[in-house]
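INFO batch 0412 | record 1 of 1 | parsing
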Amino acid sequence: MSNYILRQDLEGRSIVDFLGRLGYFPVKKSGREFFYHSMLRETGKNTPSLAVWDEGGKWMDHGGSNQTGIQGGGIVQLARAYWPNHSYFEVLQKIQFTFDHFQKAEIPLVDSFKSTNKEIDSILEFSHSQQLGRNYVLSSYLQNRGVESVASGLLWEVYYRNKAFENPSQLFYALGWRNEKGNWEISSPKGFKASIGNKDISIIRGTADHLVLFEGYFDFLSWLKFKKKEISPTIIVLNSVSLVNRAIEAMREFNKIDLYLDNDEVGKHFTTLIKESYPFANDRSNIYTGFKDYNEMLMHLLRNGYSRINR
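INFO prediction complete | emitting tokens
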């Protein structure tokens, strides 16, 4: 990534695309405006207050500003409000980094929403959950990922509806786990990943002095498959690298931190970012050198007949 970035080169970039790469999606559309639950501050789930006029490159949070005092503007002002603890130039770098290295997301077809008197809470609507083992497709998916033996009590079968789908009553299914907002994070066998309700990190409480951080939930389960039974550190799963600052805040109470982020440029970037706040944090990604993440290595080892790995 170039160290020299011109603001005018970023001004024309799509705000909807930018937010999608960070893991945020509109919950409705009115005219030319996309409406989001504000990712800049804590909000109630019933009022999507952040409006984006993507064609004009502008946004406005009608619910008010956060600690930055920035309530609207272009993509640079949005990024400055989203990353309030970084300098102006660092924010420009982060915008460019997001477009260069975060995967472009498919934006839901919010045009298909029908207008109602009640604000639409989310594109995805939770139906029910149940214990693992009843859905053959999901059970096969767990087996393919190599974590079926450790998933009970940590993953559930989650059934939901998609309000943007042409048949909004149709049920879809995925594997799901809870985040810190009490909402569901989901992953389907077809590769669809999302949250039902507001996205957040997931924390599995363990010992008070040792924290282990993972980028994805299946990486956590892969590590769990080979961990020593007597050791139970506290686990944080990011669920999205855009939530790394949220995780950094939650790390303050721990004296030992192990990091298992992806073996790619994005993972290395956020490992470095975390170590700036916690220099004593241990980068454990060398354990799966040659693989993108812990789960990719696990699946490779199991395919080749290995039953044990060194952690």
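INFO post-check: The CA atoms of residues 70 and 77 lie 7 Å apart.
INFO record closed
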